[in-house]
Amino acid sequence: MYKVLICDDERDIVSALKIYLEAEGYETLCAHNGQEALDLLAREEVQLVLLDIMMPGLDGIATLSRLRENSNVPVIFLTAKGEDTDKILGLNLGADDYVTKPFNPVELLARVRSQLRRYTQLGAVPPKRSELRAGGICLDDESKTVTLDGEPVSLTPTEYDILRLLLQSPGRVFRPDAIYRTVWREEPFGAESTVAVHIRHLREKLEIDPANPRYIKAVWGQGYKIDAS
Q1: What kind and span of H or E run contains 11?
Q2: Mean pLDDT in runs of 10 for the chain (229 residues)?
Q3: How many domains are contained in the chain?
């Protein structure tokens, strides 16, 4: 019997999903915020996660980022209309699919079956290698170290988390609010200036000429990206 973790701060939605899934023969676990979900995942063997994006405290994006540090369990996001940016960010961070609220139970169950089929047929593939690279930058997420052309670089935890986020999707442009929400795990008030300061510090540590960066580049009016070329 497959076990599915449902995480949503709206208890009516959790109750409805529990009914649909258990009627199909699945076992369910329920959480109402990201930290509860992570605590359950640390104790229980789960084959799939249904994860809401917008939750108080630890939201779905931050929860997924932490989950993907040591698990490749399939994750389907439960999203509201208008959450396109978060949806894309979630897929980049390792979400497998999404369903838009209000959802059709038939569609939801079809997506659950599809992800479980893929997961079980391919097997529980080990998590991706701990090293993330772009040119001379190497981030080892197992040892939590960063090197530049083989030389160690000392980063603050926040700088490290921003760099890891960018390295996970080379070439992908991340808006400041998306970076802030993922790294700080808070709503992005004052995100642009706060993120800009940390990006400047990263450039000072990783770029030969911070004013003309080779790796950490700004895309005018959009955000930041790692240029791996």
Answers
A1: helix 11-23
A2: 92 94 94 94 92 89 87 86 69 80 87 81 53 88 88 88 92 90 76 86 92 92 85
A3: 2
Task: Kindly state whether residues 77 and 166 are assigned to the same domain.
Answer: no
Half-sphere exposure of 21 (CA within 13 A, CB side): 25
Last residue in a domain, options 69, 98, 122: 122
Looking at the fold, whether 118 and 211 belong to one and the same domain comes out as no
Domain range for 24 is 3-122
CATH number at residue 7: 3.40.50.2300
Q: Kindly state the tokens that stand for 56.
A: 């108080």
**Cβ atoms of residues 221 and 210 within 8 Å:** no
Peptide bond into 157 cis (omega under 30): no
| CA torsion through residues 47, 84, 93, 126, sign | positive
Residues 54 and 111 in one domain: yes
Rounded to whole angstroms, how far apart are CA atoms 82 and 74? 23
**Of the candidates 104, 122, 140, which is a domain's last residue?**
122
* Beta-carbon contacts of residue 15 (< 8 Å; ≥ 6 apart): none
Q: Which pLDDT score, from 0 to 100, does residue 166 have?
A: 94
> What pTM was computed for the model?
0.54
Beta bridge partners of 152: 147
Please check whether residue 135 is in contact with residue 217, taking contact to mean a CB–CB distance below 8 angstroms. no
Task: Please report which residue ranges of 169-190 form alpha helices under DSSP H.
Answer: 176-184
